[in-house]
Amino acid sequence: MMTEATPGTSTDASVRLPAEQIPIGVERKIGSHTVTEDEVLAFGRDWDPQYFHVDAAAAEESDFGGLIASGIHTLAVFQRLSVETVLSGFDIIAGKQLRSVRFLRPVRPGDTLTGSMRVEEMSPPKNGRAVGVSSGTLVNQHGKQVLDVTVDFVARAQG
């Protein structure tokens, strides 16, 4: 029995879309995530222990006027949302390069981040692989963009 692959829903490698079938230029919604204070503090302690990520009282005196999420935390939110909803349906081998990452405004505890992504291009397959370029954004609950990212990735090709 054959099943049709739906990007973002498969954990079965046999139904992940190969490079030649990855939709180009289609903007996909990737869902939302609400950032909690506990999450900001935990990520900051583990991965980016700058005072404005790990100490709410000290962060009040910072240029940000309060606790903010690490930019790497914000990028990780984008990655998780994009994998769960879109990329898990493609036969991705690996990320290749972060072409551009822009943190456009602080992410604060309680912010709900909503994202979208689009595969911009795919190179012609060579040796069973193709390189793709994807772009994505996250906006907060006020519709203000907080992240803009462009990534190169490698996908398995059919031939």
From TrEMBL:
Pfam families: MaoC_dehydratas. Transmembrane segments: none annotated. Residues 32-132 form the MaoC-like domain. InterPro entries: HotDog_dom_sf, MaoC-like_dom, MCH/BMMD. This is MaoC-like domain-containing protein. The lineage of its organism: Bacteria, Bacillati, Actinomycetota, Actinomycetes, Micrococcales. Belongs to the enoyl-CoA hydratase/isomerase family.
